Amino acid sequence: MSISTISWKNSCVRIIDQTKLPLRLEYIDCRNAQCVWDAIKELKVRGAPAIGIAGAFGVVLGIGEIKTNDYAEFKEGVDRVIDYLASSRPTAVNLFWALKRMQDVVYANYDMPVRGIRRLLFKEAEKILEEDKGICRKMADFGSRLIKNGDCLLTICNAGALATADYGTALGVFYRAKEKAKNFKVFACETRPLMQGSRLTAWELKKHSIDVTLIADNTAGLLAKEGKISKVFVGADRIAANGDTANKIGTFNLSLVSFYHKIPFYVVAPSSTFDLNLKSGKRIPIEHRKAKEVLELQSKKTTSPGIKVYNPAFDVTPHRYISGFVTEKGLIYPPFERNIRNALT
Ligand code: MRU
Question: Does ligand 1 have an atom closer than 6 angstroms to the CB of 251?
């Protein structure tokens, strides 16, 4: 992939500042955990897998500030850095999954000199990043088998290279299908309020010469009714054990439209996005963001003063509206509760 969303360069975490796209391709070099926290919070780096990778490298930067060789003190310091990074955004479970992997390294190596643990933590963060690349390719391979010549595909938000270390989840499926010379086109929802669809997905797909048409979010129902959508592919931020799926606000609407019109609806996500501790989607923590994001468009007010706002960043699609999951382990079909557990454990 020609897009390097997140990497480790010269002792810094280098990320594309996605708030500047598509007008400017700018990078930020984070030198401390606070910078990473801020980048996650402000959506400079975003998308579930990318947030996880950023969190892991955030720990690497955070331990640079823990000046001790005493294991107990070091462990306490790491726990503090992890809690801090975990407070950035609540919904994408990949962040907590990656932070737990980092924490496990510290806990498992209590008998090692702190200097050695520091090295292992860096290696673990690198491993999380490298693994994500392979996982993207596997999901793309499985998912691309679902795409037929002539398909018109619908997606929301950005589940592409900008949301991962490599190929993306839902968009990775499209990239692989294109490599296989399949002929299809994509409709991208603009994804109010922060426009990940129009700013990021449209940019990414065009850059990779995929036939993309942008639609306002409220156009999807009509498109489906007109028979212009053959399949829907979306990413995910957290998937409960029964298959209920949290993803960008508006995904639930698309699932209803798809269900009504009998359009297959696929969720593409790595196993790190599944949270088998949650029986259903009811307990998935949903992030609520600032009113300003709805009241303004590109820093210009779009409504009169004093208007109240309700701004959840994600919704939960009940599993019964989902046709299947595309994971790095293969495709998962209903009954989800049993098949998810079998595939992932
Ligand atoms: O608020 P965002 O932009 O981080 O939301 C991202 C999404 O909802 C994506 O669809 C999801 O993280 C999957 S990314 C491969």
Answer: no
